[in-house]
Amino acid sequence: MIVLVLNCGSSSIKYQLLEMKDETLIAKGLVERIGMEGSVITHEKTGHIKIVKEVPMKDHKDGIKHVMDALLAPDGGLKSLKDIDAIGHRVVHAGEKYSNSILISDTVVAALEECIDLAPLHNPPNLDGIQACKELMPGVPMVGVFDTAFHQTMRPESYLYAIPYKYYEKYGIRKYGFHGTSHKYMAIEAAEMLNIDVNDLKLITCHLGNGASVSAIKHGRSVDTSMGFTPLEGLVMGTRCGDLDPSIVSLIGEKEGITEGEVTSILNKESGVLGISGISSDFRDLEAAMKEGNRRAELALNIFARKVRFYIGAYIAEMNGVDAIVFTGGIGENDTYMRELICKNMGNLGIKLDPYKNNVRSKMVILSTDDSPVKIMMIPSNEELVIARETNEIVKHSRLL
């Protein structure tokens, strides 16, 4: 089965085309700046030269048309659109409606539209991608794979906030968690690397990028995660503040004479390590500045590392132990300094990083010392493969019914 995976952002589309018989990547690409000047598509067939083309794209339907054109080009990867057997869509938010990936129908689309209030920046472009594929490739089965689904196994004591219960009942205000496909992938791959059934493991998975989250995975199920009702809660991130006393929102609004919406924008787009350092949300910039003696850059890095350690410690307590800690994401995979900083002085918890093994980037590898009771692992993220696998299984099952 050939599966096309689509990840539609507000102005972008990431895509991969995979042959699921042996999980071979046929082609991949990225569409950027949809609806803006300078929109561009970057396409790469495996083993061929990357092609970059600037073309006008007014909406996601235009973007997906250009994806189809790129795939059908001589070195694109496809001979005909009829060769695509299924399409897997990353969808950010399904609320409590779906705890697993699902074959997309009109009923599913209507349910996702009801969740727009929960993810106003993410669900609309996800739905645009679904509608565009429905128009351009009618009859091709589509599957929705949800960022929030993996965390639906959390118990009420983990996901409920201590606010009047009626707000949960009326508005669905609770912790949902995100990066679910990434955390699930890390758990599966870690179990395979360790040659232990995932149902026999306690794992802490760290998806560290500009957006970042940590999850506690016990016996293959998410029992807690750092992101909450929105991706703003939890870790300090590139531009997001993470955990915050809610009284600060009204105080900033009152003192600065700005609206609650404007404060929320500051907390999402001007905070995190960018807000602390005043320099950048890019950890490479911060580490370079730190080496030049910039104390605020160093402070931002220390605050980020401390918050990751905070959640690791909390989740060890919650699960009564941990077998392995797994890093992924742009920072988790590539930032050797940050991995070392996070794991520093955690020997009493059985976490011992080997500095020599740690000197590596974007490889599936164990980073802990040989005598470390807790394994420290790095597993490059491949959310698209998770989406393709789930799409493949659901479509195959639906055809057997």
How do the helices and strands line up, and which of them pair or pack?
Layout lengths: L1 E7 L4 E7 L4 E9 L7 E6 L5 E4 L5 H13 L13 E6 L10 E2 L2 H9 L8 H14 L5 E5 L9 H4 L5 H7 L8 H15 L7 E7 L3 E7 L2 E5 L21 H10 L3 H10 L2 H6 L5 H9 L3 H25 L4 E5 H6 L1 H8 L21 E2 L8 E4 L4 H18 L1
Parallel strand pairs: 1-6, 6-8, 9-12, 12-14
Antiparallel strand pairs: 1-2, 2-3, 3-4, 4-5, 7-8, 9-10, 10-11, 13-14
Helix pairs in contact: 1-3, 7-8, 10-11, 11-13
Organism: Aminicella lysinilytica
Catalytic activity: acetate + ATP = acetyl phosphate + ADP
Function: Catalyzes the formation of acetyl phosphate from acetate and ATP. Can also catalyze the reverse reaction.
Account of the protein in words:
The chain is an alpha/beta fold. It folds into 2 domains: 2-146, Nucleotidyltransferase, domain 5 (2-Layer Sandwich), CATH 3.30.420; 195-383, ATPase, nucleotide binding domain (Nucleotidyltransferase, domain 5, 2-Layer Sandwich), CATH 3.30.420.40. It contains 14 helices and 14 strands. The chain has helices at 60-72, 106-114, 123-136, 156-159, 165-171, 180-194, 247-256, 260-269, 272-277, 283-291, 295-319, 329-334, 336-343, 383-400; strands spanning 2-8, 13-19, 24-32, 40-45, 51-54, 86-91, 102-103, 142-146, 202-208, 212-218, 221-225, 324-328, 365-366, 375-378. An 8-stranded mixed sheet has the order 5-4-3-2-1-6-8-7. Strands 11-10-9-12-14-13 form a 6-stranded mixed sheet, sandwiched between helices. It is globular and about 55 Å long. The protein starts with a strand and ends with a helix. The mean pLDDT is 94.
